[in-house]
Amino acid sequence: MEKLAVQKGFNVEEVRKDFPILHTKVYDRNLIYLDNGATAQKPQVVIDAIDTFYAKENANIHRGVHFLSQHSTGLYEEARNTIQRYINAENSYQVLFTKGTTDSINLVAFSFGELVKEGDEIIISAMEHHSNIVPWQMLCERKGAVLKVIPMSTKGELDLDAYQNMLNEKTKLVSVTHISNALGTVNPVKEMIAQAHAVGAKFLVDGAQSMQHTTVDVQDLDCDFFAFSGHKVFGPTGVGVLYGKEDVLNAMPPYQGGGDMIKTVTFEKTTYNELPHKFEAGTPNIVGGIALGTAFEYLSTFDFEAVEAYEKELLDYATAELKKIPEIEFYGEAENKVSVISFLVKGQHPYDVGSLLDKLGIAVRTGHHCAQPVMDFYSIPGTIRASFAFYNTKEEVDILITGLKRVITMLS
Amino acid sequence: MSIKEKEEEIVDEFAIYSDWMEKYEYIIELGKDLPLIDEKYKVEEKLIKGCQSQVWLHAEKEGDVMKFTADSDAIITKGIIALLIRVLNNESPADVAKADLAFLQEIGLQEHLSPTRANGLVSMVKKMKMEAIQNA
Ligand SMILES: Cc1ncc(COP(=O)(O)O)c(C=O)c1O
């Protein structure tokens, strides 16, 4: 694709033009898409990249001498380079393509997990997505390791003193979300990583929610692993990334066996390929990887300071407007949070509120958001979550507020 | 009235609503009017846990016909339960078991019976039919 020019500041009306779905209707009403925490919409450049690949570029990668195979291999590896630059990884081979965050975390739990011994400790937090809980429970079960959970406050902030006290020489790995999908909390992962390293533990950052809202520099964070999904950063579904430090990845055994991940295979002995191929068995999601590269090229045209300022303005506006409705109860009021608002309408079931908002064209998520322990913490079955991306507007917040008032009247 | 006739009656009732919100106002009314399930049946064994909302169902055979009472923590789920009960109550186990409940499609509420909604309704219909088969 052509080089996109970097924008100055942030102009939401211009950005909205890039996303065709934002101009569609549901039930004859303008779509108000406030479920960006679940998945983000795709800009035209990403859609075009997928189209073009299948129309003109499709071939398997890393294995053909013919023109198209070399071309698609080039596109795929260029996408890896784009992502490397975007997250500031040391080398492109430290950017492993996976199916998504869940797959990335499972890769670490199974492969790095082979280095975990009985009695070792793994630390997660009270606000993790099920994807960052269950693989560690499975690992602890397999290896006889111990899972510890950093508690949080009712505001939805982690107890960092408790975390410090949990760390010790038995701690093998800490795996914590950068940004909570259920509460919007931004955790101070950089400090937490330094604390983990002080006792010799490795640190995985669940970055599923991060890059939709902020930029990430893996070297600055100094994390050992960083996991994210393509579909939440305006890229396609079915593709994601695991970044890992070179020495850490090299010390890990392969996760899955198959084509591409080997150097030589005989029935007596197989030798494994180098990074990143060692962890990329089989034909990958080629078009997904390429289009994810395009999504990051698109993201790199933004002035992210302006994006963050705009999202903060949206968050503050939406929070203030929601506060004017006396029936609204908030869940997650951390000092440092992104444009994700979890709430309930007093006395009303989130399913009812969500179903009615849907009929007004407003897409929110209701339920436990794959974070049941968070809901148990507050003793609620679930919440209504409005999660805003940079293409949402104050007018859409107004429509949400009007819709909510109408729904509350209907239900009471 | 047969199951089919009751379904047609409901489809006619819904025909006057041109707007989704009106339709839902009616469903909410139905939910509020649903006769409550006897408290003694609001127990774990009667509970159908959905991810989003949950449903309690009690079924018994009275004479030749099935009798259902149910409840839910969500009012829209309850409104749809009221429709299902209206259609399936006082019908023979054989008729309940083979009811296709196509009216939900016609009035545009079939989405609530999609497994992805995880509101307990799909399992509730399954359970209603199971109970009918067991009582046949
Ligand atoms: C914090 C967090 N972690 C992990 C995941 C899992 O991502 P995926 O389903 O794309 O693998 C999500 C997605 O909702 C998430 O929000």
From TrEMBL, chain A:
Q: Which PROSITE patterns match?
A: AA_TRANSFER_CLASS_5
Q: Identify a single GO molecular function assigned to this protein.
A: lyase activity
* BP term (GO), one: cysteine metabolic process
What InterPro entries is this protein classified in?
Aminotrans_V_dom (IPR000192), Aminotrans_V_PyrdxlP_BS (IPR020578), Cys_dSase_SufS (IPR010970), Cysteine_dSase (IPR016454), PyrdxlP-dep_Trfase (IPR015424), PyrdxlP-dep_Trfase_major (IPR015421), PyrdxlP-dep_Trfase_small (IPR015422)
Cofactor list:
pyridoxal 5'-phosphate
Q: Which UniProt keywords apply?
A: Lyase, Pyridoxal phosphate, Transferase
Q: Which ranges of the sequence are coiled-coil?
A: none
Q: Which domain of life is it from?
A: Bacteria
| EC numbers on record | 2.8.1.7
Q: Which reaction is catalysed here?
A: (sulfur carrier)-H + L-cysteine = (sulfur carrier)-SH + L-alanine
Pfam families assigned = Aminotran_5 (PF00266)
For the protein in the UniProt heading, the enzyme class is transferase
Q: Does the keyword Mitochondrion apply?
A: no
Tell me which residues make up the Aminotransferase class V domain: 32-400
Q: Which NCBIfam families match?
A: sufS
- Tell me its family: Belongs to the class-V pyridoxal-phosphate-dependent aminotransferase family. Csd subfamily.
Instruction: Provide the function of this protein.
Output: Catalyzes the removal of elemental sulfur and selenium atoms from L-cysteine, L-cystine, L-selenocysteine, and L-selenocystine to produce L-alanine.
Q: What is this protein called?
A: Cysteine desulfurase
Q: Which species is listed as the source? A: Lishizhenia tianjinensis
TrEMBL record, chain B:
The UniProt entry, under Pfam families, shows: SufE (PF02657)
- Top-level taxonomic group: Bacteria
The UniProt entry's coiled-coil ranges are: none
The UniProt record lists the Fe-S metabolism associated domain at 12-130
InterPro entries given in the database record: Fe-S_metab-assoc_dom
The family annotation for this protein states: Belongs to the SufE family.
- Its name, as the record gives it, is Cysteine desulfuration protein SufE
